[in-house]
From TrEMBL:
Annotated protein name in UniProt: Ion transport domain-containing protein
Transmembrane regions listed in the UniProt entry: 31-53
Domain of life of the source: Eukaryota
Keywords linked to the UniProt accession: Coiled coil, Membrane, Transmembrane, Transmembrane helix
Source organism of this protein record: Stentor coeruleus
Taxonomy of the source species: Eukaryota, Sar, Alveolata, Ciliophora, Postciliodesmatophora
Coiled coil: 118-156
């Protein structure tokens, strides 16, 4: 079935179709033919699923592109249908107006989405700025505390050095 050179394209296509639905006969296959058969049974469903996923993805992307405009058109059709059903209410004196939607409103919706994203990004930047300022204050406080500790230790060293010098001078006075 797999390595038969005499098969034409139609027969090969029919064999692949039967292979997808489990219609195959492997009784007189050799080792190489069995290996090729098993590879084909593994690869063929993967290829078919990949094809199905790509078709569905393309369909979904086309549907998503036209979703907003189709939604607005359907809503306008419903309003027109509603008015045609209630034709007896037209002359009661209550005037109501039908507002038309244009593709520009879709652009405004896109701009609104973008502006919301920008606002969210701005809020995130503000939060990062505040946390940076707080971190900077903590860092400055730590540096100031560290400098105070160093200054205190230097003063203690000076006091100890003077005490040592006084003790040395007293010791020399006593020795001499």
């Amino acid at each position: 079935m797999i390595i038969d050179i005499n098969l034409d394209f139609g027969a090969s296509l029919a064999d692949a179709y039967c292979l997808n639905f489990g219609g195959f006969n492997t009784d007189n296959y050799g080792v190489f033919q069995l290996i090729m058969f098993h590879l084909a049974t593994l690869i063929n469903p993967l290829l078919m699923l990949n094809l199905l996923v790509s078709i569905m993805n393309e369909t979904f992307s086309r549907l998503k592109e036209n979703l907003i405009t189709e939604d607005i058109k359907a809503l306008a059709e419903l309003v027109v249908e509603h008015e045609s059903v209630f034709f007896w209410k037209k002359n009661r004196g209550h005037r109501k107006f039908l507002q038309s939607c244009s593709p520009e409103t879709i652009e405004y919706l896109r701009i609104d989405k973008r502006s919301k994203r920008l606002e969210m990004l701005g809020d995130t930047v503000d939060q990062l700025y505040k946390s940076m300022k707080q971190a900077e204050k903590r860092r400055k406080k730590k540096i100031e505390d560290f400098e105070n500790k160093i200054s205190k230790q230097r003063k203690e060293e000076i006091v100890l050095f003077r005490t040592l010098m006084n003790n040395e001078a007293n010791f020399r006075d006593k020795v001499s």
